[in-house]
Predict the 3D structure of the following.
Amino acid sequence: MWHGEPTLSSCASAPSPLGVPQNPHFGSETIDMCQAAFNEGDYDEESDEFNKFVEEAERPLFEDSEHTKLHALVQLHNLKARFGMSDTSFSELLATVGSLLPKDNHDDKRPKDGYMRHPADSPAWKLVDYKWPKFASESRNLRLALSADGINPHSSMSNRYSCWPIILVTYNLPPWLCMKRKFMMLSLLISGPKQPGNDIDIYLEPLIDDLRTLWDGVNDVYDAHTKEYFTLRAVLLWTINDFPTYGNLSGCTTKGYKACPICGNKTSAIHLPHSRKMSYGSHRKYLPCHHPYRRQKKAFNNEQKFEVAPTPQSGEEVFKRVEYINHEFGKGKKKKNLAADATCPCWKKRSIFFDLEYWKSLYVRHCLDVMHIKKNICESLIGTLLNMPSKTKECCCSLTYASNGCYLGQKIGEKKTYLPAAPYNLSRIEKMKMCSSLLFMKVPNGHSSNIKNLLSMDDLKLYGLKSHDCHTLMQQLLPVAIRSVLPKHVRISIMRLCFFFNALCTKVVDVSKLDKLQTDLVLTLCGLEMIFPPSFFDIMVHLTVHLVREVRLCGPVFYRWMYPFERFMKVLKGYVRNRFHPEGCIAESYIGEESIEFCSEFLQECSAIGVLKGPCKLSGTLSGAKLKSLSEEERDLAHLHVLSNNAEVDPYKT
């Protein structure tokens, strides 16, 4: 169980409060002088950080220790300087001394500095502690998240077979273990060949019954660490899914005029009749009331916007709306519930998760998946900039009409009517510059797939982008690739959107900066509305407005996106050996892996399945290495020398 932000005693990086000093009063005068210097200055952020450093230095090295952290640190660095120890040997010394200290010898509480590093720092976690203090009093009680998604267990993409694993993950773990494969539980496996759709509630009933039992408490659970029995309880904090599954689990609509589950009835949407698509724009309503963008007409859709941003509905408000919806399950013909459509146009059914006593009290019940949102936006941007036929959002039928019956931006001349080039249209030379930048980019090993293999310089297009490719493109590569193309205002707007995702996906969240992040995003979306056609603003672009809210309530993004679950489902697909019984193969192999993992806990030489090892550390130093480029003649001579001294080649020698 994870109770706080840990500090590893075996860490090899300085400053680390390790060592056994000799004088317990060492450093007291230094601390007094530092404190006096601090009191003389004015208060600012730097002085506040300095004050925290001084307070940390006064703390004991570990519980009941007579030595302070500052003393241990200075003493060790003194040894390093006196005997000229190298950085490598000093790191090894820190690791060795750390292994000799008592177990759990640093702080066991999370730092309270206004940053969120884990869901335990979020208001959603603290809400459970506040409303149910009996649950919070036992630190071993579980906080869970649920993910559901369909997979095709066959390698043939033409096969439309779909089975649905339901995965539970526990958050009672430190950041480096949380969301790892070892701690993901395959709780249900919904068989195919068709996806369950809105009838998924029927398959979830056994799991919901187990979650209700866990909420009430399971007695006589044995804790092997403390060697005692206790009552175990568990709470489901939220679900993590792509957007269609979001609608299936929550019971809300994800298409049409009310497609946004947060905005609900106040979703701003228009239908583009010629392209038969929906456009979700009007992000000016998220600006302050007197912002000048609200009064501008020509730059937007020839209308002023004074509408106020909608307030998200609470769980209790949603429950009151869907409590009496009678949904008929099954794949046959169903009678349309006209009464429910009139009173609750945004909801299709009452979700089975409301059977959980605490579900309606949670801040966020279903999380928006940043991975799929980012992937869809990246594909739309790349497809529109490179004018890819299957991905572009620009077409004449997607443009909107002005009051005079003409397309916005349409030029009517004496002989012909034409549409001028949009500011985001790239010439062939600009496309070559952008693609060449991507072609010759060098990234660290494992940072992303080889973008060169996804790029076609013949037709200047990108093909086969995966989710992680879109992740790296949006956060690092795309701003570099477009730095010398596009007009300045277009380039800046796209870069601002990329920087938003980069700031959103940080592992440590500064709560004080979230308001500015939200304001900058709204301005970015308004700037994009001035540039791109209405068809660009699908529901995925609109959902970015609500991502900051979920970070504020639930904590860092990487605990709530689909990347770890997608990797785990890739493992499940690898279990399939029999095409006629894919679910049986998955269940059998998963149970076998769990059994082996349990047995390996009793063997020291066996490594855990599903937990990545740390980065490989090289012994020694490479500072004295010299690089030399070999010519072809030297390479051939070296190759011949190796073959000449190989016994396996002797029979072939003449």
User: Anything to note?
Assistant: Residues 1-109 form one domain. The longest strand covers residues 142-148. Confidence is low (pLDDT under 50) at residues 3-27, 400-407, 615-625. The chain has three domains: 1-109, 115-256+315-367, 380-404+425-559.
